[in-house]
UniProtKB/TrEMBL annotation:
It comes from Diversispora epigaea. PROSITE patterns: PCI. Residues 81-254 form the PCI domain. This is PCI domain-containing protein. The keyword Coiled coil does not apply. GO terms for biological process: proteasome-mediated ubiquitin-dependent protein catabolic process.
């Protein structure tokens, strides 16, 4: 099949994918099938990971659009490894071919999503490396970029309430996926500290502390996952004790060692 024929076929399938993905009731299984076929086509045309000089702007545009839909599809089906692969492929288009292509409307939303992904995975060094490739003024002006930048600052400050409140200020609904992952990490950190600081907590206080917004069902589910003991009559959570894990001190051995050291010191003196 000639290159022009492959491009025409890919264009038609791309239009089908775009229409399905934009539908209010998009069938993500169909989208996955279309994306799989399109990635094969892009690979055959050297557009999945393009190298060298490619002057056909139409080919590059279609390829970039396909990869952008793929990245957004990955977020909506909660497939983080797939999202990471699409972003890696898109970076080539956003950097190496930026002089040939008009700027994509999806570039900054996807860049912001990728920054959030790195935060949610606690990959802070990579987060800062990614920031270095972004124009400084965008860090404070572009809503898609400044949102994850502010989140990272809140995390460094330990201002977890600000992280929670940021859910109400997301620049796009897709951002909630990674923020929810981040909140799960924060909840587990708070839970670990609470287990060490308290023997028990009222259910209402635990809900507030863990940002469950007084949702009793979510609190009980989380408590079960952590192995906490909930007493409904008392409306309290008792943190699991670790009596079975007490460390036994080998008194006899320590005494013998101390006596040996004492004898050796006497011989030295």
């Amino acid at each position: 099949m000639s290159t022009s024929s492959r491009l025409q076929e890919a264009s038609q399938l791309y239009n089908t994918l775009e229409k399905e993905f934009a539908s209010p009731k998009a069938d993500f299984t169909k989208c996955a099938t279309y994306l799989a076929k399109l990635k094969i086509a892009l690979s055959e045309m050297n557009l999945l990971l393009p190298e060298g000089e490619i002057t056909n702007v139409g080919e590059l545009l279609i390829a970039r659009n396909i990869l952008e839909i793929g990245a957004l599809w990955s977020v909506r089906v909660k497939d983080i490894p797939s999202f990471e692969r699409y972003i890696a492929q898109l970076n080539t288009y956003y950097t190496d071919y930026s002089s040939l292509l008009p700027q994509s409307q999806q570039m900054y939303p996807l860049t912001g999503l990728n920054l959030l992904r790195l935060l949610s995975q606690n990959r802070i060094a990579e987060f800062h490396t990614a920031l270095e490739n972004i124009e400084p003024e965008l860090l404070l002006e572009n809503p898609y970029i400044k949102h994850p930048v502010h989140l990272e600052q809140y995390l460094m400050e330990g201002s977890y309430n600000k992280v929670w409140n940021s859910r109400e200020q997301v620049p796009a609904p897709d951002y909630l996926f990674f923020i929810d992952i981040l909140m799960r990490t924060i909840r587990n950190e708070i839970a670990s500290c609470s287990e060490k600081a308290y023997t028990s907590l009222p259910l209402a206080d635990a809900a507030t502390l863990l940002f469950f917004n007084n949702n009793l069902h979510e609190v009980l589910t989380f408590a079960s996952e952590r192995g906490w003991n909930v007493i409904p009559a008392e409306k309290k959570i008792y943190f699991a004790t670790k009596d079975d894990e007490k460390v036994e001190i080998p008194h006899d051995t320590i005494i013998r060692q101390a006596l040996n050291y004492a004898r050796e010191l006497e011989q030295i003196v």
